[in-house]
Write the structure tokens for this entry.
Amino acid sequence: MAINEKARDQERREEDRKIRFLRFLVDLSILSIQQDELTLEEAFEKMEEVKRVALRLFPGKELAFELIYRPRFERVIQERFGVASLIS
């Protein structure tokens, strides 16, 4: 395997690791919003914390977060608190 191929393979593995971690964090946070004794404000803050972590892992990918993960959080918050839109 050429050095270039090894570097690309390592980058791919690192990217996969970051994606798995973010998915785990999102799932854990959503479960927390669903099951823990949180206020509406705390639920919003939890979503924003996940967004901050996501942007540290994937700089410049705010639009991806907004399209992929925010709708999931909004659905859960809506189900839990009966709120249709965020107060960001």
In short: The chain has one domain: 3-81. The longest helix spans residues 3-35.
